[in-house]
Write a structure and sequence with these properties.
The structure is a single chain. The protein has 65 residues and is mainly alpha-helical. The protein has two helices and no strands. It has one domain. Helix 1 packs antiparallel against helix 2.
Length: 65
């Protein structure tokens, strides 16, 4: 059950990161500046998604596999 939870967390994190990058690209292509809402929200989503993937895939320090 823990493996399924970790895999779904990684998948959702990847989806969030991709959506964030797409938002940034779409906003910049549409003429938005660096502080446009789409750029800021997209960057935050991309960072959040990448952080979720990173935290879900790193090995806990206390355990040995």
């Amino acid at each position: 059950m823990e493996r399924i939870h970790r895999q779904s967390t990684v998948a959702m994190g990847a989806v969030l990161a991709v959506i964030g990058v797409v938002m940034v690209v779409r906003t910049v292509a549409g003429g938005g500046g660096p502080f446009a809402v789409g750029v800021v929200v997209g960057a935050l989503l991309a960072l959040l998604g990448a952080a979720r993937v990173f935290l879900a895939t790193r090995r806990p320090r206390g355990r040995r596999a």
